[in-house]
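Board notes (copied after class):
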Amino acid sequence: MNDLYRVVDSYMREAVALPENLLADNSINWDFVDADVHIRLNPVNETVNKYYEYFNLIADDILSESGSYII
């Protein structure tokens, strides 16, 4: 696992835990999570593609850990 993956994972897990990033049904608002992580990380140029690759992988992990699409 590389450093970018670890940072994205950490930032995503922090963002998912924020009440403002949940919808009324307690499902995750991934757009808000993406915005929070993107602001903190500010991926540029060659890291943007890796960022979104990792974001999707980590989102899948988070969802599988929770057992559903709702946390």
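Comment from the instructor: The chain is about 65% helix and 0% strand. Residues 46-66 form the longest helix (21 residues).
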